[in-house]
Amino acid sequence: MHRSYAIAAAALALVAGTAAFAPALTAQGAPELPGAPDPARVVAGTYTADPAHSLIAFEVNHFGFNDYYGLFGDVAGTLTIDPANPDAAKVDVTIPIASVTTASKGLTEHLLRPGKEGAAPDFFGPAPAPARFVSTSVKAEGMTAVITGDLTLNGVTKPVTFVAEFTGAGTNPFNKKATIGFEAETSIKRSDFGVNYGIPFVSDEVELDISVAFEKP
Predict the structure, then answer these.
(1) What are the pLDDT digits (tens) for 22-42?
(2) What does pTM read for this prediction?
């Protein structure tokens, strides 16, 4: 193939590929986002968590001086939902504790450090089991829902309630999957789950900020 023709063909292919993912435009000419907080966009069915776009952030207070943050990623699990009956929704997600990360390498290592001389670890230890949340009830009202369920962490199961906000639904333009997103907040006491190191200098209360996207296979 002639070099100039090959370059032209490649350019046309690139333009065509880009056009396939070009977003729709609003009446004002601005790009329209694929997702929007519109319940009419929610497709009934069972969704799976998108691990690349889901996370749980935790916040603790350090010595009374300031708050410190960390992240859990690689969320897995399912959401079953019917927009005609949102109170019947079911959530079952797992969070690999071993994927914990913080801005401090030393702290991250401490969270996963084994106990000294056979003692229990200060925090999670080197091979922590994933945490799991399984809903037991959902009470939806408007764009929010109060979700109660059982959280298993560090071998202990306790009831936890959080408020979730519906943040968007639509079709992912890249993989063409129906997608739905939520953000939620709650707080737990880590001592309830046997993680007692540093209390009260590092707060017992842990605030959790959750952002999860679910995709329909």
Answers:
(1) 556 556 667 889 999 999 999
(2) 0.85
Residues 6+ apart with CB under 8 A from 28: none
98-140 pLDDT, tens digit each? 999 999 999 999 999 999 998 999 999 999 999 999 999 999 9
Cβ-based neighbours of 170, under 8 Å, separated by 6 or more: 33, 34, 35, 36, 41, 178, 179
- Choosing among 3.40.50.2000, 3.90.280.10, 3.10.340.11, 2.40.128.110, the CATH entry for 36-215 is 2.40.128.110
- Provide the terminal-to-terminal Cα distance of the chain, rounded to the nearest Å: 41
